[in-house]
Design brief:
single chain, about 280 residues, alpha/beta, Rossmann fold, Hypothetical Protein Tm841, Chain: A,domain 3, six-stranded mixed beta sheet, 11 helices, globular
Length: about 280
């Protein structure tokens, strides 16, 4: 059987990880001289408490961490499909490729989601469901390429200071944005995070997320949607209700953004992941 492995940025809801027996390799989070494995050594309340004292950094899992996950699966005779956060902003893909090379007798494929959060997570779920249906590795990879090509992700942060420090987003003068109190709209394009619009208020920024999503996937065809947020639960739930009323939702999730991603976007970040279903 094909088993699915991903990293902790994928934000797949816990009940679905368990339902499809999806394995998760943690991203590492560093606060000064302390290193934590996301979801293992540090929980969300602790992360946000420490975030008030120090802005952390994140790093990809080592090849050895991935080998520890691969070995028992391969030993049970499974093929392994690893779907990871965009290689344009993380070394996780390269770690997975190196881990594969360390187990030459194992059947391992590594797929670059070219996305983050549920942009990756929906690919993970699609792969797990296809594997359960008995699809071949080649069929699943073809399915993933299609989903990857039609996934859209737009988000807006509550503050610029985390993005300014992380340097993860291009084409934006962070200092100017902070000075003018504008709210950038950021998209994921071919795996790269790019700021491409600025609006003046939080409310207008969220309105613009909805407008861009409607332009990307339409409002009448079946779509899969996810609201991603960091400590913005009420806004995310209001956004969910709004999208339910205005889109043909085939599947929808509201998810807490991974702490390893919140490192770069900060508390208050909110976004929408979307793609047309059933193609």
């Amino acid at each position: 059987m094909i088993k699915i492995v991903t990293d902790s940025t994928a934000d797949v809801p816990q009940q679905l990880l368990e339902r499809y027996d999806i394995r998760v390799v943690p991203i590492n989070i560093q606060f000064a001289h302390e290193t934590y494995r996301e979801g293992i050594d540090i929980d969300r309340p602790t992360f946000f408490r420490k975030l008030e004292e120090c802005i952390p950094t994140s790093s990809q899992p080592s090849p050895g961490q991935l080998v520890e996950v691969y070995k028992p699966l391969a030993g049970q005779g499974h093929s392994i499909l690893t779907i990871v956060v965009t290689s344009k902003h993380s070394g996780t893909y390269q770690s997975a490729v190196l881990a594969k090379s360390m187990l030459p007798d194992a059947d391992v494929e590594v797929f670059d989601s070219l996305s983050i959060s549920m942009g990756t997570g929906y690919q993970v779920l699609a792969a797990a469901r296809a594997a359960e249906e008995g699809k071949s590795m080649g069929e699943i990879l073809q399915l993933l390429e299609g989903i990857r090509s039609r996934t859209h992700l737009y988000f807006t942060p509550a503050t610029m200071k985390y993005l300014q420090r992380s340097g993860r987003v291009g084409k934006l003068s962070g200092a100017l944005a902070s000075l003018l109190s504008v709210k950038p709209i950021i998209k994921v394009e071919d795996g790269v995070l790019e700021a491409f619009e600025k609006v003046r208020t939080r409310g207008k920024a969220i309105d613009r997320l909805v407008e861009l999503t409607a332009q990307a996937v339409g409002t009448t065809e079946p779509v899969k949607l996810a609201m991603i947020h960091a400590e913005a639960h009420d806004e995310a739930e209001a956004l969910r209700a709004r999208l339910e009323d205005n889109f043909s939702c085939h599947e929808m999730h509201v998810v807490d953004l991974a702490c390893s991603l919140t490192v770069h976007g900060g508390p208050g970040i909110i976004g929408i992941v979307s793609y047309k279903a059933g193609l």
